[in-house]
Amino acid sequence: MGRSLEGKVAVVTGGSKGLGQAYAKRLAEDGADIAIAATSLAQETEKMVKDAGRKAEVSVCDVSSPEDVSKFAALVMEKFGRCDILVNNAGIYPYQSFDQMNFDDWRKMMAVNLDSLFLMCKAFLPSMKQNGCGRIINLSSTVSWLVIPDYTHYTTTKMGVIGFTRALASEVGEFGITVNAIAPGLVRTGTTETNSPPEIFDMVAARQAIKRTATPDDVVGAVSFLASDDAAFMTGQTLIVDGGLARA
Ligand SMILES: NC(=O)c1ccc[n+]([C@@H]2O[C@H](COP(=O)([O-])OP(=O)(O)OC[C@H]3O[C@@H](n4cnc5c(N)ncnc54)[C@H](O)[C@@H]3O)[C@@H](O)[C@H]2O)c1
């Protein structure tokens, strides 16, 4: 494996487990030092990053809180002095019917899955602009195209991620900064295993062109590519990594 990100610093939100942990590990293997913001201390991920020979900084930080994000960004600047890659991965996805959802539920989904992008990009774009380069990678989902019941709030945020990605890309390209998204299908993580009925994995796999359930390892390559110099002329895009589920 090449060390294409040698000397770079990557911020990965939600890097304590699941997809975020896999992204942090892969970006470290690619050569980047890693800062992680999550709801709990990401000690397991910290060890993975250090085992890859890179520095790790892990923080408990609510990505929907302006105060927390501001403190986290100050810490990253103090420890690493720069941010080259920002992976906006932290997200929540509880099933809830529109009927049962109250305004607080709706607001929480918007805050964690969308306000976080605003806050993190505001916090780290100045460093990227100063350095004349940067990579922002946002997490959308194939729910943006599939109709899944009990996901009105979640689908709204993940479609919103695509709009945010396209619009911000048009404003920061002149500074050498790209903004892209990836849209995974159903990936087996601790949370999807707990949240979802067990039969959902086989049902979804049967609808994919590639008939097996994805693991986080199936989606890390897309993030590694978007973070690399090879993706320097690609921006505003959403890569669908779902084994052929959405066929958008
Ligand atoms: N797993 C899938 O099937 C799948 C598919 C498509 C998209 N996604 C998206 O990928 C991302 C990660 O999914 P996952 O399955 O790995 O989830 P996960 O539940 O395993 O991990 C979520 C991470 O986000 C962090 N997080 C949650 N709320 C936070 C907050 N307020 N502040 C800071 N950190 C917070 C958690 O600490 C954790 O590290 C999410 O944005 C999700 O919508 C997941």
UniProtKB/TrEMBL annotation:
<keyword id="KW-0560">Oxidoreductase</keyword>
<dbReference type="InterPro" id="IPR036291">
    <property type="entry name" value="NAD(P)-bd_dom_sf"/>
</dbReference>
<dbReference type="InterPro" id="IPR002347">
    <property type="entry name" value="SDR_fam"/>
</dbReference>
<comment type="similarity">
    <text>Belongs to the short-chain dehydrogenases/reductases (SDR) family.</text>
</comment>
<dbReference type="Pfam" id="PF13561">
    <property type="entry name" value="adh_short_C2"/>
</dbReference>
<protein>
    <submittedName>
        <fullName>SDR family oxidoreductase</fullName>
    </submittedName>
</protein>
<dbReference type="InterPro" id="IPR020904">
    <property type="entry name" value="Sc_DH/Rdtase_CS"/>
</dbReference>
